[in-house]
Specification:
The chain has two domains: 182 residues, Flavin prenyltransferase-like (Rossmann fold, 3-Layer(aba) Sandwich); 207 residues, Rossmann fold (3-Layer(aba) Sandwich), CATH 3.40.50. The two termini are 19 Å apart. A hairpin with a 2-residue loop joins strand 18 and strand 19. 33% of the residues lie in helices and 25% in strands. It is an alpha/beta fold. It is built from 14 helices and 19 strands.
């Protein structure tokens, strides 16, 4: 646990019976040399005392947003700025809901809202509360905000029910925090690019053809690469997604612009082709708006450039690890396997984008992962989790 030494950790203790585990968590983090500050919520004080927490942390415990002495120095801002990481354990359904809705009605939520540091959520609640659609919606919201999750696990909860919602044990939480700091260096000095979103091909100044893509998966992958320490460039077609922190963003429109941008970033250690590039373009672009004139018009299409082949087939540009995506609606395995081989990709992630899967513009994805030795199926999961799983595989590849 050497990554924990001298790390400044802000622990927020929520109000649940699992709060007693936070005492052992404090003890363990101190044992490995971490420097702790602790916020004890008003409901958390119903389960553990300020005295026990302060004795273990060897620091004064913070409890009140309106503490005159602390807020003269903007205490909630300083707490969020001075930490290397913030850990919320336990994070109750109520606390998660307030985070999802941007509330800042007490010291804990105000500190989290003001934070510019990584935040690890350690959930603990009744299994029915965990599975409630409202809770799941709130969880998805804060995952999209960039929060990290440790747990929960399946087991017996304090109410006597058995299921998902039991708080992770302190030893697992300590391991997770250590791994978080460790993974920040796993891809250090590696250069990566990610293509994302759709491309568009103009017909005339007001019309174009395009592919259906929100860019969510590519943006999530670029964010994860950056968090693992990679020097990451995101090359994106039109998208409403927010540029990930620490990532260089290059905006493009057409397939040729995307290919040129990828070439400008090449060669790279890691190349991920997640964009939905239009396969065809208009043979003859009109520089004026085409009028309908009351009759049908035929548009002649020609094959577009291939961003993947334009890079992977060029030995001077090919990434050390090249990864593509295949969006399919039928014969997923067979079509993806053919694309994997045809484009000479190291890895390929195939996903079913049929309408009933709600992949386009949705937050979830189902993946069949191909490498040169075979394939494996990943269960349906949030796109941020697909990104994390993929980037973790990438980090293992380079170890």
């Amino acid at each position: 646990m050497q990554e924990l030494k001298n790390k400044k950790i802000l622990l927020i203790i929520g109000g649940g019976i699992a709060a007693y585990k936070s005492l052992e968590l404090i003890r363990s983090l101190k044992k490995y040399g971490s420097q702790l500050e602790v916020i004890l919520t008003s409901s958390g004080r119903k389960f553990v005392t300020e005295l026990s927490v302060s004795q273990l942390a060897e620091r004064e415990v913070h409890t009140d947003l309106f503490d005159l002495k602390s807020e003269l120095k903007m205490g909630h801002i300083n707490l969020s700025r001075n930490a290397d990481i913030i850990v919320v354990a336990p994070a109750t359904a109520n606390l998660i809901s307030r985070l999802a809705h941007g509330m800042a009605d007490e010291l804990a939520t105000a500190t989290l809202l003001a934070s510019n540091k990584p935040i690890i959520i350690v959930p603990a609640m009744n299994p029915q509360m965990w599975n409630n659609p409202a809770t799941q919606k709130n969880l998805m919201s804060i995952k999209k905000f960039g929060y990290h999750f440790c747990g929960p696990e399946i087991g017996e909860t304090a109410c006597g029910e058995n299921g998902m919602g039991r708080m992770e044990e302190p030893s697992s939480i300590v391991h997770y925090i250590n791994e978080y700091f460790s993974k920040k260096n796993k891809l250090k000095n590696k250069k990566a690019f990610v293509t994302a979103g759709p491309t568009i091909e103009p017909i005339d100044p007001v019309r174009y053809i395009s592919n259906n893509s929100s860019g969510k998966q590519g943006y999530a992958i670029a964010s994860a690469l950056s968090k693992y320490g990679a020097n990451t460039t995101l090359i994106s077609g039109p998208s409403f997604e927010k540029a990930p922190e620490g990532v260089e963003l290059i905006k493009v429109k057409t397939a040729m612009e995307m290919l040129d941008a990828v070439k400008s970033c090449s060669p790279a250690d890691i190349g991920i082709f997640a964009a939905a590039v239009v396969d065809w373009k208009i043979k003859e672009y009109k520089d004026h708006k085409i009028k309908k004139n009351g009759y049908d018009r035929m548009l002649e299409l020609i094959e577009n450039v291939s961003v993947i082949q334009g890079v992977v087939k060029n030995n001077s540009l090919k990434p050390e690890l090249s990864i593509g995506f295949a969006a399919e609606t039928e014969n997923i395995y067979e079509n993806a396997k053919e694309k994997h081989s045809k484009n000479d990709l190291d890895w390929l992630l195939a996903n079913d984008v049929s309408e009933d899967q709600d992949v386009f513009n949705g937050d979830y994805n189902s993946i069949v992962f191909f490498d040169r030795s075979g394939s494996e199926t990943w269960q349906r999961m949030p796109k941020v989790d697909v990104a994390e799983k993929l980037v973790n595989k990438i980090s293992e590849y380079f170890q």
